[in-house]
Model the fold of this input.
Amino acid sequence: MKFDTHSLPPASAIQDVLDATKSTLKDSPHEPHFLHLAEIVKHNLQFQHDWTSVRIHTHSSSQLSLPRPIVSGLPPRRAYIHPEEQVEILKAEHETGKPVEQVPEQEWVLPTHWDEKWTLNRFAEMFDAIEVVPGAETSQEEDDEEEDISIGYKWRGKNRQKRVLLSTVHDDSTVVYYIMHDGLAKPRQN
Amino acid sequence: MSSSAPSVAEPISISRIGGRYLIFDIDVVTHLRRAHRICGTPVGTLPRAPQQNVFSGLPMELMPEEACLLVETGVAYIMDDLTWHKENFPVAGHRRSEYLEEVHLIGLRASRAQENALQSRKQTALAKQAAAGARAASLKHIDTADADDEDTISMFHTDRSSSRASSTPTSGSAWAVTPTISYSTSPSQHDSKSQADVSVPSSYPLFVYLHMKGYYMWPGLRFGCDYNVYPGDPMRFHAHFDAVSFDWEEEIDMMHLVGGGRLGTRVKKAFLIGGKDEDKLEEENPVRTFSIEWGGM
Done:
């Protein structure tokens, strides 16, 4: 097979995504590389981890510009189950003999690059700028109608401890995800 | 269980020797652990197993953080060991002979206690023997049982009186004693102003924060962090966190977070980063923390 050395090879899927953001860069309050980082993470979530309704947020619910763009989305299965909730689920399953269904929850994903330096102050700013659950500001009315009191509700939804998935992107396209809680969170007994 | 614990009068003295904070009294060690969630690290060689260093005994060394926290909460004060000995230790004159006499008395008391313990053990054994003998005799000859009993008792009596004579303390029977402390831990003897400030690492605010939340801390060498954080006594619980302290504006490598998170999850813990929140200095000990676990994807 012969290569045409006079023209560029076809762009990768992620390059197409990055090119498509060009028009929005001018109006963005963030630097282009932050937006690109968010796009890479969004792409990875969608196509490698089967996440749905993945969005990039540039502003907080109070319309203030976030310290950097942050991604939210719905994982195919629960990304985090609190150890106490796990205990409650196991108890219920033992009593009823039926498995308790785990409905995925919306998660925040904070895009970072492996070469970056963070500080406690910046993590605190990021956490302070976001809601507990992504999109809570729009679906609040629905929540009020039907108070969720199913098994483990104390650790779900707006009752949960504020958390983000800390995603770290490497130049070799590896993206790793770590669950980061705001404050002390008892570890899971995996 | 707590009722059997010896009462310890606070504030207790922490000996500072060569920049290390040491406690030589087992009752104090127990008290600090039970009442104040301070574990310390035993660093002394065991006299009966001097050729190993896996298990250690008294003295207990405190981390500077632990010593500082105890001083700040009024539980303890720092006693500079060298200064105290220079000023107070009786090296000559009548105070020296008084001191030697006191040490001798301690030895005497110890040997007498040992003697008494032996004696009571012997008595219990003999009483048991006598009872068994009486029972056997009564089975054989019910009529002569009384006579047998008398025999046993008289034998028992002579034995007791002879040993009583031997247990009378004489100066020669005192044990040679090396006191582990030259000053008592009781607070009344000492001026609490003798406490000096303890220089603590920058992770101190995080230590205090976690301690106030009811956690127990051990030095973090095992998991390469500042503290291993236990939800209860480390002898009964696994640690919940590997805690590393950062200054509010100190740069954190992403690789550090990934490495710590990965290691923590591997050993069923969370990687905890935290430090003094410089934006909330009006609060008492403002500390912000974040727990990190592997995301599983």
Summary: The CA atoms of residues 218 and 228 of chain B lie 5 Å apart. The domain at 1-89+185-200 of chain B is CATH 3.40.1170.20 (MutS, DNA mismatch repair protein, domain I). Chain B touches chain A through 39 residues (CB under 8 Å). The radius of gyration of chain B is 28 Å.
